[in-house]
Write a structure and sequence with these properties.
Layout lengths: L13 H6 L3 H11 L1 H14 L6 H17 L5 H11 L3 H30 L3 H30 L4 H14 L1 H24 L12 H27 L52
Helix pairs in contact: 3-10, 4-5, 4-6, 4-7, 4-10, 6-7, 7-8, 7-10, 9-10
Length: about 290
């Protein structure tokens, strides 16, 4: 009723809009925009991982796409996925995928044995074993959350990546708790559903791998940026090119990133409204 479309307003600057968005709301904003891509990537990833040998490269490829989503960089989703899959179809990624599968299978088997033991002959030692198995599963999940993003974006040897993953599990503890809770809730619900309707086991290739990968990368990659990538560029007197360049824009971790080397500056919110009464037309007719 009171809006005049002929009069320009102050608008909202990118600095203000992005800096005021909390991680929780940013997560759901990106998740909503990329939802159907996540569904398609989930199906693609599930069927591509059926041959065990492709598990590692496919996981790295999925992580690379999730990394681009988190950074909000424009990409051709499936070209990015298959490009990363082809690039990382090597011994390191293949062995990482196989070892991850073996460790998680061993964790699942040990958890099954521990639960059976608790039901058959409960004791202090049995409960202690169950607690240790659960702790090892949490640590394994957190380490994997940092291994695959490092393979996707860093050129390091595996011992260095494992060392980094161990340190980052502690440095990003709060974010890791969110990731672990997301996995626990998801797989608890799926377990209940499969126990109620066992025939749905045929839908295993359609498990929400992409959605969980997005949660994992959203929580893990800012920690990798803060403790590994940003210090590398700072040591060379440069700015991490992954960070946005909006003046005093805040990065993925909430720190100020500065605004050097800006090619184009969005002045939204800084221009003065146009007063048409003061605009005078003084021109010459071109013949």
């Amino acid at each position: 009723m009171f809006y005049n479309p002929q009069k320009s307003g102050k608008g909202v600057s990118k600095e203000q809009a992005r800096s005021e968005m909390k991680p929780f709301f940013k997560f759901w904003e990106i998740f909503g925009r990329k939802f159907w891509y996540l569904v398609q990537l989930n199906c693609l990833y599930g069927f591509l991982c059926i041959p065990v040998i492709t598990l590692g490269p496919a996981t790295v490829a999925l992580t690379q796409v999730m990394r681009k989503f988190v950074l909000e960089q424009p990409i051709f989703v499936f070209a990015e996925f298959f490009g990363a899959f082809k690039k990382n179809f090597n011994l390191r990624a293949v062995l990482t995928g196989i070892f991850s599968l073996i460790f998680f299978a061993a964790f699942g088997f040990s958890m099954f044995i521990s639960v059976v033991a608790v039901n058959v002959q409960p004791s202090g030692m049995v409960y202690f074993t169950l607690a240790m198995n659960m702790a090892s599963g949490v640590v394994l999940l957190m380490v994997n959350s940092y291994i695959y993003p490092q393979i996707a974006c860093l050129n390091l040897k595996m011992p260095a990546m494992l060392k980094n993953a161990g340190i980052l599990c502690i440095a990003g503890f709060k974010r890791n708790v969110v990731t672990v809770l997301a996995f626990i809730v998801t797989f608890t619900v799926l377990t209940v559903v499969l126990l109620a309707w066992p025939f749905l086991v045929i839908m295993l290739p359609l498990l929400p791998f992409a959605q969980l990968a997005f949660v994992s990368v959203f929580n893990a990659y800012p920690v990798i940026q803060r403790y590994i990538i940003n210090p590398y560029y700072e040591a060379q007197g440069e700015k991490n090119p992954e960070l946005p360049d909006y003046g005093d824009e805040t990065g993925l971790n909430g720190e100020k990133t500065g605004g050097t080397n800006t090619i184009f500056t969005d002045l939204g919110g800084k221009e003065n409204p146009i007063d048409k009464k003061k605009v005078k037309s003084k021109g010459k007719l071109i013949k």
